[in-house]
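Entry 12.
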Amino acid sequence: MAISRIDILIERFRNGQISDDEHAELLQLLSRKENAASARKFFKGLMDSQPSDAGFFNANESDQLFEAVRKRSKNGKQEPALRRIPWLKWTAAAAAACVVIFMGYQFIAGNKRTENNTMAIQEKTVPTDFLPGKKNKAVLILSDNSQILLDSTNAGILGKQGSSMIRKAENGEIVYEKGQEANQPPGPVYNILEIPVGGEYQLVLADGSKVWLNSASRLKFPVQFSGSSREVEVSGEAYFEIARDKSRPFKVHFNQSTVEVLGTHFNVNAYDNDDIQAITLLEGSVKVSNTLNEVKIKPGQQARLTDASRINVKEVDTEEAVAWKNGYFMFADEDIKSILKKLSRWYGFTTEYQGTVNDEHFGGMISKFKNISEVLNMFERTGTVKFKLIQGDASGKGRKIIVTK
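Predicted 3D structure (tokens):
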């Protein structure tokens, strides 16, 4: 397979052999919408390669970077200004923070933060702040409707349900350890794992399958699988790594639809207040069905359900689908309303829009564990949108973001 020009330039950049003219060419190629996947991979590689004490750009470097790739018109007639900038030199702080304008939408990438550094990419314009959500925050509801607050429970045996023991591991993971089927009570015994806004959790089911649940999500599951199939119900978002069992397919039910697998890795995004539910396959093969249709998808594909009958299949960047599990927010050609809906599930706020909000589309990636001000300030830096934060009371009630042009 032929090597593309952008791959050649990226390799020369990594080896420190890139010329000034090639610097400008690489930036121009990265700014094109058709190269969005390559650009995301490039910037993520930069971010992940930085040492833990990597700092941020100084103000002058940030301004040079931003002005070099300042927003362009959506009709594609205006090319971004290009010149050699310090950011394109390979240094320890090379990927601290950046804003790249793609053809037709904007790309934002954030990086690690140290205790002794502040965001230099811009001045703070958000007067208050919301803390990010946290891992291992969930409620386990047992078969008798009693509840266990998992974020305040110590590691160890939590109890027994049916013939399965429930154990909380040192890393916070909940593990259902399969017991003897002879000790299983008649009929299935169900537990429910509920993830509040601002939480996420990992669970190991009795068959060894692993499930990661995103914020504002819910999983209903049997404490031990029996019969000819393994079936669970999910709402919200979950990533599954299914233990292979050829004799018993694994079925995930959501919103009158079903995903069926034998052993595979896939993500289900099925929030009730989203217009589209999406199943993204990373490994193996799955069958997606609803009341009228059925499709099979391959790794790298996503099945999108837009109503009770239609299922569309498209090729996708699977990294985007599971970014939440890996500690990132990743957006691809999304408007600010869609982005804020995702952020609200993690930071816990409502949104109010004042006036006509720009329909600019954004793409990019930033850590989930930054305060909301750092996330919003990167959008504000593009000059297309502004935010005002209302803190609410001590419990977070009344927390709101007001969006203006």
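Annotation: Confidence is low (pLDDT under 50) at residues 50-107, 109-127. Residues 5-110 form one domain.
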